[in-house]
Design brief:
single chain; rod-shaped
Length: 171
């Protein structure tokens, strides 16, 4: 099982926390978060200040941050491309920072197809029953000759390789 795995086409929300650890007021810090390659901007929020999306770069303007002050920021993107994606964000201010090593954050995720051929059957189910998850035509086939297509067997929760396993409704 992959950690940080998300399905293709789903929305992914990254939550960032910006905190001023001192030793003095941080004048007008800003967080930038470019839209990661393979993702589309959906929305953003901040508990302090404002944000803009200019040319695919989110910029959160936080106003003055007192020592210990902070903000929670969210950036939501739609996963449009299968594969690894890394979200990167950084905070900066005009004031010299004594610990610049904590000004960057990144999180890697993996975007997975769950129905890559878009035939209505999960790829994992197709693999279990020996179908090709890259072939959309196998949904219309009837692997066991019981007059139910493989897609109908998927919907019914029956075994598409066993003609005796059929959906029965009793009224």
């Amino acid at each position: 099982t992959l950690t940080n795995a998300v399905p293709l086409g789903s929305n992914v929300t990254f939550v960032l926390t910006a905190t001023n650890f001192g030793p003095s007021l941080a004048p007008f810090p800003a967080v930038t978060n470019p839209v990661p390659a393979g993702m589309t901007y959906v929305g953003a929020t901040t508990t302090r200040g404002s944000f803009t999306n200019q040319n695919g770069v989110l910029r959160f303007a936080l106003g003055n941050l007192s020592v210990g002050g902070g903000a929670q920021l969210t950036a939501t993107f739609r996963a449009d491309v299968e594969g690894p994606v890394t979200n990167r964000a950084g905070i900066y201010s005009n004031l010299a920072d004594f610990n610049p090593g904590n000004n960057l954050a990144e999180l890697a995720i993996t975007v997975l197809c769950i129905d890559c051929d878009r035939d209505g059957m999960l790829d994992s189910w197709e693999g279990t029953y020996g179908f090709n998850p890259a072939d959309p035509t196998d949904a219309r086939e009837d692997a066991d000759g019981d007059q139910m297509t493989n897609l109908e067997e998927y919907w019914a929760g029956t075994d598409p390789r066993d003609a005796r396993d059929v959906l029965r409704l009793q009224i």
